[in-house]
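Subject: Sanity check before I submit

Could someone independently write out the structure tokens for this chain? I want to compare against mine line by line before I put it in a report. The sequence has 164 residues.
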Amino acid sequence: MIVKSKKLTADSFSKFGKIVDIPQSPPSVESETVKYWSTIATFMLDGEIEVGICIVKKHSNILEFMERHVQTPELITPIEGDFILPVAVSRNLVDPEETPIAEDVEAFYINEKQAVVMNKGVWHWAPFPVREEASFFVIFKKETSKRDTVVKSFRDGKKVIVAR
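---
Independent answer below. Compare away.
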């Protein structure tokens, strides 16, 4: 199965979460040296958060499994390089046996001036860099990678090819 990346817009990403992008509206504060837009995205976390850094290198665009976090949203903010983020909706957040469904996978092209806040439970995997390498911040509830990460293969052993 091949999934072609889509342009990241508020509407196209709405079932997975929110995008963080430079607004088309006038900034909240503007001077000769600063433009600032306040409250362009929000998300709720109860308790301490952690900030991690991930670096991904170009490899085959074959997606064999995905992960999800059911107790926290996740903010992915590029540091350097554009990438393609594969995502799929979770059909049942409380079902520990749920597996991602290949036919539900969508992919979004995220440039290094954009970010996304994924809803709790969204199936995803590390982005595929457009060039040789990309890096990004991962922000979510503290110790999510240890306590709230489930990695599952696709139902029926299917694979997805993520295309630009």
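---
OP: Matches mine. For the report I'm noting this point. The radius of gyration is 16 Å.
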